[in-house]
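One-letter codes give the sequence; each number marks local geometry. A record appears below:


***
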Amino acid sequence: MRHWDWYTSDQHYGHANIIEYTGRPYANVSDMNDDLVARYNRVVKPDDNVMILGDLCMGKLKESLEYVKLLNGRKTLLVGNHDKPFGTTGDKQKRCEQMYLDAGIEEILYGQVTTLVGKHLVALCHFPRSGDTSTYEDRYVEYRPKHKGTLLHGHTHGKWRVKDGQIDVGVDSWSGTPVSEETLAALITDGCLDADRLSWTPYDYE
């Protein structure tokens, strides 16, 4: 069964509007892009395996993917609704995928994946079972997972960190950084108790 050392999602490299929308502490999109890379590389080592649960880049894709080239680790992308391959088929899908592969993504997956986190069998999907990025009804219902157990996901941009057995691994829930397998395994062992997002904190690069 596949294994990853780190989990993350929803960086939205190149997306200026995400700063105000989610309350990220940046003056502009360039500062956000640079800081997200720095926070990521502070914890992820070159030989680590990383699962990105979707919505990696927005804006001008070729420019945004330049930041992906700077990221450590062997990276798998589980496609989210803002990733270019989402909803595509055939040659168009292959062309979209190739752009991510050229930027250093080693594998591209779709839908729902099952893995072990510590000793726990969990499901991975960009989408939670329920809940969205706004107060409106859930979107993309046909892509929502049916898994009843522990679920790692993105998409909700910090509406919660843990809720009803669902853990949002996105940067808006974890102060801009990936979350380790060890941290997730401990949360699951403790019963996946509901928890709010972590606050974004200044980062000391010295």
